[in-house]
Write a structure and sequence with these properties.
Two copies of one chain form a homodimer. By secondary structure, chain A is α/β, with parallel strands linked by helices. Chain A has one domain (2-179): Pyruvate-ferredoxin Oxidoreductase, domain 3 (3-Layer(aba) Sandwich). In chain A, 40% of the residues lie in helices and 20% in strands. Chain A has helices spanning 15-27, 76-82, 113-120, 126-138, 143-153, 159-179, and strands spanning 2-10, 33-40, 48-56, 70-73, 91-94, 108-110. A six-stranded mixed beta sheet of chain A has the order 2-3-1-4-5-6, with helices on both faces. The A-B interface holds A 11, 16, 20, 23-24, 26-28, 33-42, 44-45, 59-60, 62-64, 155 and B 11, 16, 20, 23-24, 26-28, 33-42, 44-45, 59-60, 62-64, 155.
Chain lengths: 181, 181
């Protein structure tokens, strides 16, 4: 088993934190090896943000990703850049309020992460909604493992809010999955 | 210019946060390209933590690090594993209260980051002290750029404490540098 995950959006959406949490959930709290990378080019200064995670039950040689198995997209700019680079059978999750896409052959799950987070009180937790959706749709790591990694990564007084956002995202993810089956 | 930086220690020391901040300081707030990686193997479950950053004024092809130009070590386990893998002319910064080393030919700067952080009120900001020392000793990115990246990465109410820790680390770093010149 080897999965390459790319998360992308713009600065301030917590893309990097989300990547760190995915890496930790897979390694520290599940039984995988993981490599998690942020690459910053000139586009970072334009506000773009990208985080990549490789999860494997074997040792990981090369830490870079070419085409993703799982692509999570939270901004139009990120979609324009990475939307067409995922593998043929990839799982794609987008926030449809942030990304307008042309429908192609690929299966795309829509989770209104920013809206859901905003309804919960703060759109900065849209990343946690997306992590919930990611687990609900792909089962890439156990739900508990991701929750543990979130606990490690957010300030104590925000744990409740973040867990709530994660749970909402999970619910929406599972619903989207059922819709498309 | 291309610099490979490895930060290592144990979980809870904020090694990953420190790596993210270095990457951001170089890319978003300076004019470099940067790739920043966390690799988690089985040792992550033993509490080890490692973060690597490549900074370059050209595009970065391979995102992995073999031997570091700059090595920051905050635990004995990390030293035992990575202490001997840096480049011949590397800059090594350790917390001497956490790492007992055998003196070899290499130039090693000692910054009591954990002690300094503890004196400031909380040893969890030892990573910020280390970032200050890193900038003071190596000048790898401008001081302002690192400060901006720290601002982005810590909760608002802790900004003052973190900046203070960074400033103390910077001072100690500069002092260490002068001592060894």
């Amino acid at each position: 088993m080897k999965k390459e995950i790319r998360l992308c959006g713009f600065g301030g959406q917590g893309i990097i934190t989300a990547g760190v949490i995915v890496g930790k959930s897979a390694s520290v709290y599940s039984n995988y090896n993981a490599v998690q990378t942020q690459s910053y080019g000139p586009e970072a200064r334009g506000g773009a943000s990208k985080s990549e995670v490789i999860i494997s039950d074997e040792e990981i040689g090369y830490p870079g990703i070419e085409k993703a198995d799982i692509l999570v997209v939270m901004s139009q700019q990120a979609w324009d850049r990475y939307g067409k680079t995922s593998k043929p059978n990839s799982t794609i999750v987008i926030d449809p309020d942030m990304v307008k896409i042309e429908r192609g052959g690929k299966k795309i799950y829509e989770v209104r992460a920013t809206k859901i987070a905003s309804d919960l009180g703060n759109k900065i937790i849209a990343n946690m909604v997306m992590l919930g959706a990611l687990v609900g749709i792909t089962g890439i790591v156990p739900k508990d493992a991701m929750e543990q990694a979130i606990l490690d990564s957010v300030p104590k007084r925000f744990v409740g809010l973040n867990k709530h956002a994660f749970a909402e995202g999970f619910k929406h993810g599972v619903r989207e999955l059922e819709k498309q089956r």
